């Protein structure tokens, strides 16, 4: 007998209470318990209705993640749902907290649904590379219609109770103890002579233009197949009898289970949860984080200040002049206005954040009581050392001194203070109040509780935090610099920037790398190339054609011209005709005869450069685990989630094949394509990057 589902009787009504803390996940014991207790209710003389309710903070939050990747055990969830729906008793689901995935599918198999006002429902399987596989794609459209069901399933979004009522997903919203609410609703149904109402017996949804919808969903998903496949499953609900639709849904579900995309998305799901779980921080108490200082009120500083304000912290922002201070406050006000418009904060909260929680000052003495200060000034070592010298003089003992540098040596910055143990890098990504990634850069002398404080701040701000060691560019920008160099070689050798962008968007990137450069500002890369020029290896190939454009004052979107031409009022850009001319001139200067590249080879070289440098980053200990690299690329650089990250992509291709590709490219350019020692070692031992992840978490 399962103790995960409790049975009790109240007159003519039996209650099946799911009790599998913390969120009543649908483990094998829960599935078996639901069947067992349902049959007990049906055998209990005089019982006419059943209420299914969850104990604790949720109805049923979905599948049990502890069972992911393990052989499935009976009873299967589709059989459980079909058996609930087939019960001769009236079955009511009384929902509170979240009812997600299989949890909502259980509720849909009940005959009636009542929910608390604060309840939320959803079918988020697409985020795991799947579609609902226990009748969700067949039952939901019978309640909502095809278009609304497709929106719910393909977005995987959470739907609040009021909206779910309007959609027809639930029948009633009622506040109170979930069991009492369920009992009252069931009793009312019995008193009014209501009959069983299986969703499977309702008519299928009206047809829509299925092919157009499929194409639109596939395009929106940038190549992710599970949302588009879900459209076909909903189509089955309209075109097939219910039982046949269930079989079609199940086949699509099982087919998706075998895909590379499902592997990638499961990896991303678990890695996102594992990335901040560092053994070195276990039991380490972070320092206080109520008052935050920010140096510099440009786009980055204003974004950081906004994020801290929205997290409930007081912020002191330092700027150099009255005009700069006013501009910084205006940027923060603009950011907060966005949160106000989206309903994230009230007008009262907006006024309080801007008028009370934020202080803008030109005096470093205003930072004397802050708990942590983040420097976000110009990316120049001399400027940063000057700032940290001032912070060292005014900040209280124990205040954490953080730099938002993207590339520079945090050890050198720390050495400019009398308290290097209090110094850390906190590399935010712009816009800082929107982007999810935070690289926590741990210097040689950074105290463990300072590292813990960096992670605590990131958690408070809702960030995905990744530990990084000190090197030029840390994890993300170091790898970025390398694969951008590989793209530069491709351009010199004959692939146009526009073909490269198109090939990589088809691979799954939100934007092509050259369009991204235009968005960020071409002057950033130009400055980096000039900074690195004196120390460049003689065999290093660095294209300079784009520098000619920068020298003319063209820096991308902000000036209207870069790789692409941007016109006011028009979305996106059109290829800049100057670019092929500049490339051709450099090819002639270098004596290069251009050749054609297929889109497949462009993607392969791009990915091999990324993986090879990432393997060096892990091998050197800059990233502790391959999954750290994956999370940086997913959350900071727009890498397609359905590949799981570059290291997971490499595992899926097979590391021997990846190494073979890299060695073949090394025949053309031995200096750039030096295989990472870690990659060679793993291939020699027949192991994968994921094996390293498992070892680190063991």
TrEMBL record:
It comes from the Bacteria. The keyword Heme does not apply. Pathway: Lipid metabolism; fatty acid beta-oxidation. InterPro entries: 3-OHacyl-CoA_DH_NAD-bd, 3HC_DH_C, 6-PGluconate_DH-like_C_sf, ClpP/crotonase-like_dom_sf, Enoyl-CoA_hyd/isom_CS, Enoyl-CoA_hydra/iso, NAD(P)-bd_dom_sf. Residues 292-468 form the 3-hydroxyacyl-CoA dehydrogenase NAD binding domain. Keywords: Fatty acid metabolism, Isomerase, Lipid degradation, Lipid metabolism, Lyase, Multifunctional enzyme, NAD, Oxidoreductase, Peroxisome. It is found in: Peroxisome. SUPFAM superfamilies: 6-phosphogluconate dehydrogenase C-terminal domain-like (SSF48179), ClpP/crotonase (SSF52096), NAD(P)-binding Rossmann-fold domains (SSF51735). Pfam families: 3HCDH, 3HCDH_N, ECH_1. Residues 473-566, 602-687 form the 3-hydroxyacyl-CoA dehydrogenase C-terminal domain. It catalyses: a (3S)-3-hydroxyacyl-CoA + NAD(+) = a 3-oxoacyl-CoA + NADH + H(+). Monomer. Belongs to the enoyl-CoA hydratase/isomerase family. PANTHER family: 3-HYDROXYACYL-COA DEHYROGENASE (PTHR23309), PEROXISOMAL BIFUNCTIONAL ENZYME (PTHR23309:SF49). This is 3-hydroxyacyl-CoA dehydrogenase NAD-binding domain-containing protein. It comes from Sulfitobacter sediminis.
């Amino acid at each position: 007998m399962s103790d995960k589902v409790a049975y009790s009787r109240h007159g003519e009504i039996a209650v099946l209470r799911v009790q599998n803390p913390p969120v009543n996940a649908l483990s094998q014991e829960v599935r078996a318990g639901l069947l067992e207790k349902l049959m007990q209710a049906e055998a209990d003389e005089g019982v006419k209705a059943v209420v299914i309710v969850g104990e604790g903070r949720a109805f049923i939050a979905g599948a049990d993640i502890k069972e992911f990747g393990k052989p499935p055990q009976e009873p299967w969830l589709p059989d459980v749902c079909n058996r609930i729906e087939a019960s001769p008793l009236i079955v009511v689901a009384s929902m509170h907290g979240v009812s997600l995935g299989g949890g909502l599918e259980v509720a849909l198999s009940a005959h009636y649904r009542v929910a608390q006002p604060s309840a939320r429902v959803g079918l988020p399987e697409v985020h795991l590379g799947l579609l609902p596989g226990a009748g969700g794609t067949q039952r939901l459209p019978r309640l909502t219609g095809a278009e609304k069901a497709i929106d719910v399933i393909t977005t995987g979004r959470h739907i609040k109770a009021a909206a779910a009522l309007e959609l027809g997903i639930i029948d009633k919203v009622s506040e109170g103890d979930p069991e009492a609410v369920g009992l009252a609703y069931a009793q009312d149904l019995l008193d009014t002579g209501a009959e069983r109402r299986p969703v499977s017996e309702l008519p299928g949804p009206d047809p829509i233009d299925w092919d157009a919808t499929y194409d639109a969903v596939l395009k929106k998903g940038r190549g992710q197949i599970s949302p588009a496949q879900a459209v076909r499953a909903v189509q089955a609900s309209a075109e097939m009898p219910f039982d046949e639709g269930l079989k079609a849904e199940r086949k699509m579900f099982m087919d998706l289970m075998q895909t590379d995309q499902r592997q990638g998305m499961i990896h991303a799901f678990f890695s996102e949860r594992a990335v901040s779980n560092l053994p070195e921080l276990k039991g380490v108490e972070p320092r206080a984080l109520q008052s935050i200082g920010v140096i510099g009120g440009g786009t980055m500083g204003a974004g950081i200040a906004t994020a801290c304000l929205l997290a409930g912290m007081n912020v002191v922002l330092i700027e150099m002049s009255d005009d700069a201070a006013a501009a910084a406050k205006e940027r923060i006000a603009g950011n907060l206005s966005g949160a106000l418009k989206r309903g994230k904060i009230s007008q009262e909260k907006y006024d309080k954040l801007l008028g009370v929680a934020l202080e803008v000052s030109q005096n470093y003495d205003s930072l004397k009581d802050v708990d942590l200060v983040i420097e976000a000034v110009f990316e120049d070592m001399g400027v940063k050392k000057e700032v940290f010298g001032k912070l060292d003089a005014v900040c209280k003992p124990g205040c954490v001194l953080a730099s938002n540098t993207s590339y520079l040596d945090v050890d050198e910055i720390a050495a400019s203070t009398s308290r290097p143990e209090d110094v850390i890098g906190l590399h935010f990504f712009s816009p800082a109040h929107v982007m999810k990634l935070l690289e926590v850069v741990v210097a040689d002398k950074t105290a463990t509780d300072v590292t813990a404080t960096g992670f605590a701040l990131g958690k408070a701000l809702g960030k995905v935090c990744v530990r990084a060691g000190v090197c030029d560019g840390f994890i993300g920008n170091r790898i970025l610099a390398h694969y951008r160099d590989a793209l530069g070689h491709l351009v010199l050798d004959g692939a146009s920037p526009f073909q490269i962008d198109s090939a990589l968007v088809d691979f799954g990137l939100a934007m092509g790398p050259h369009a991204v450069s235009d968005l960020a500002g071409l002057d950033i890369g130009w400055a980096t190339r000039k900074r690195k020029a004196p120390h460049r290896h003689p065999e290093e190939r660095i294209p300079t054609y784009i520098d000619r454009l920068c020298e003319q004052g063209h820096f991308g979107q902000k000036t209207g011209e870069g790789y692409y031409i941007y016109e006011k009022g028009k979305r996106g850009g059109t290829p800049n005709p100057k670019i092929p001319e500049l490339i051709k001139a450099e090819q002639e200067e270098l004596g290069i005869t251009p050749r054609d590249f297929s889109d497949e080879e462009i993607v392969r070289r791009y990915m091999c450069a990324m993986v090879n440098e990432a393997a060096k980053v892990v091998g050197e200990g800059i990233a502790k685990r391959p999954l750290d690299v994956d999370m940086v690329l997913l959350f900071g650089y727009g890498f397609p989630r359905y590949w799981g990250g570059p290291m997971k992509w490499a595992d899926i291709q097979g590391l021997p094949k990846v190494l073979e590709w890299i060695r073949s490219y090394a025949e053309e350019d031995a200096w750039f394509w030096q295989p990472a020692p870690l990659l060679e070692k793993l291939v020699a031992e027949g192991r994968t990057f994921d094996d390293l992840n498992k070892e680190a978490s063991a």
